[in-house]
Design a protein that fits this description.
Pilin-like; alpha+beta; 190 residues
Length: 190
């Protein structure tokens, strides 16, 4: 019988060239994955989803207020029929003064000038939401007409998906193509 002799000195493992090829392939795959997945865009989409949800919650609270309070006041008695307020630091929508310390309150002194605390069951919101970024570019805005009891809530979208693909900000019925606008004002043009 022939016996195969094993060389006890034979090298075991991978060569340097094989290791370099595998590392290069993994680097290319990782780069392609990051470019395709685009984590920055997913973070923008997450913030835009939060904006849509936040404004929907505030809209629901205002609608509840308008249907349950006998004489609703959508401007908290400020500026008669042209109240505007925002949660942002500086912006073109600010007409009424909103102090930074009070922007989240639900008693009519926050960025939404509706006193939710006057609801018989209590406020549906514990605090008013703020934009995830909340700076001079990205903030929530509120405008109301007390005479008509109409209001509008605005937020600027930042992702490609919400800004262009689904076009939340261009097909919402509002008058500002770069803002997401909801409310009960017929043309959302407050």
């Amino acid at each position: 019988m022939n016996k195969i002799k094993k060389d006890k000195g034979a090298a075991k493992g991978f060569t340097l060239l094989e290791l370099l090829i595998v590392i290069a392939i993994l680097a290319v795959l990782a780069t392609v994955a990051v470019l395709v997945i685009n984590p920055v865009e997913y973070l923008r989409q997450a913030r835009d989803s939060q904006r849509v949800g936040d404004l929907a919650a505030v809209k629901g609270a205002i609608d509840l207020y308008l249907t349950t309070v006998s004489t609703p006041d959508v401007t908290a008695g400020v500026l008669g029929n042209a109240a505007r307020c925002t949660a942002g630091a500086t912006n073109p929508f600010t007409i009424t003064p909103c102090t930074v310390s009070a922007t989240r309150t639900v008693d009519g002194t926050g960025w939404v000038l509706v006193s939710f605390s006057s609801l018989s069951g209590g406020s549906p919101l514990t605090t008013l939401p703020l934009d995830p970024i909340n700076d001079a570019t990205y903030f929530y805005a509120y405008a109301a007409n007390e005479t008509a009891n109409t209001y509008e809530l605005n937020a600027k979208m930042e992702s490609v998906k919400f800004g262009t693909d689904q076009d939340f900000d261009g097909k919402d019925g509002g008058d500002q193509p770069t803002w997401y606008e909801i409310g009960n004002d017929p043309a959302l043009n407050l």
